[in-house]
Design brief:
This protein has about 325 residues and is of the alpha/beta class. It has two domains: about 1-115, no CATH class; about 135-310, no CATH class. It is built from eleven helices and ten strands. A four-stranded mixed β-sheet has the order 7-8-9-10, with helices on one face. It has a three-stranded mixed β-sheet with strand order 1-4-5, with no helix packed on it. Helix 5 (about 135-155) crosses helix 6 (about 160-175) and helix 5 (about 135-155) crosses helix 7.
């Protein structure tokens, strides 16, 4: 028999509306294959109700109907479910995100599953989807390719043309840094990669003054760096803060380390079933296939294939 605890916190509303913080907590992982599922439902801080299910519900709506039916008249009013942690609600979450007829709004998804606002849960969700440790794989392969990538960027920067000028500017800012450690090198690579691939990096890496609200119109995904001084150059390697933008609005405040925020953004793309932004699609495809080693049976072409060949044919 599976035992779970379902925490419910009431929210003042019309009639008997409840705002559910939904937390399935398996007390014994070895019971996962058992037939019965017992839920302890906290409808108030000190009030617990017991619910036994013979099988897992097929959808969120079915679970809501079961809860409402079992606990009449206590739950006669409307209520919604919000899920705190994702382990045992993964199937329901994926069904709502991927199985929906129309793509749900990201804000609606994270309102229902607020655990997705936690970095640890995004990393865990990515592992459930792709069976890959997001953080370990990302940094292992990014760091492995960084020396060669920086060499390619420097070689390109000494040539002529707009791409060379942009890369040369990034290299100059990097070279004057007092501390050029692994984190600084990661920032350089992530900023220079879309430039090297001839993509518009300004659509991915956005900046704004801390005193002014940014215009996020037509911003499917981005990393928004907040700056305080007159130049954005100093914020490149030591930003005041970084926000993760999804669907034209700030979703969460990310880590101030750019590489950590990029990793989190990549995790969100998979957890929320988002598309790579068109203007930096090559950059994300490189991260997917070369860094994360996630294949989709589509061959690399053009600039991506050339870059991969340059990396592996030193």
């Amino acid at each position: 028999m599976d035992l779970y605890t379902l925490f419910v916190s009431p929210l003042l509303s019309i009639k008997i509306n409840f705002f559910f913080f939904f937390f399935f907590f398996p007390r014994n992982q070895k019971m996962a294959a058992a037939q019965k599922h017992v839920l302890h439902v906290y409808v108030e801080r000190d009030t617990t109700l017991k619910l036994t299910l013979l099988e897992r519900p097929k959808s969120v709506e079915e679970l809501k109907e079961i809860i409402q039916e079992r606990f009449k008249p206590r739950l006669n009013g409307d209520f919604s479910l919000h899920y705190v942690l994702m382990d045992t609600t993964y199937a329901l979450c994926r069904q709502e995100i991927v199985g929906a007829v129309g793509a749900p709004r990201v804000r609606d998804i994270v309102d229902r599953w607020p655990a997705l606002l936690m970095e640890s849960q995004v990393v865990a969700e990515f592992h459930r989807i792709k069976n890959v440790n997001l953080r370990t794989q990302f940094y292992k392969e990014l760091d492995r390719h960084t020396p060669r990538l920086i060499t390619l960027f420097r070689d390109k920067a000494i040539k002529t043309g707009k791409i060379a000028e942009e890369l040369a500017k990034l290299m100059r800012i990097y070279d004057i840094q007092e501390q050029r450690d692994v984190n600084t090198r990661r920032v350089l690579v992530l900023h220079a990669l879309p430039v090297y691939l001839r993509e518009d990096a300004s659509t991915l890496f956005r900046t704004c003054d801390s005193a002014d609200g940014p215009d996020l119109t037509d911003t499917p995904v981005a990393l928004l760096t907040v700056v305080t001084d007159d130049t954005t150059d100093s914020a490149l390697f030591s930003p005041e803060s970084i926000c993760i933008v999804v669907e034209d609005e700030i979703l969460v405040n990310g880590p101030t380390n750019l590489a950590d925020s990029f990793l989190l953004l990549f995790g969100y793309i998979y957890a929320l079933d988002l598309q790579y932004p068109k203007k930096v699609e090559l950059t994300f495809t490189f991260i997917q296939k070369v860094v994360m080693c996630l294949e989709d049976n589509k061959p690399l072409k053009g600039r991506l294939l050339m870059l991969k060949n340059d990396l592996f044919n030193e």
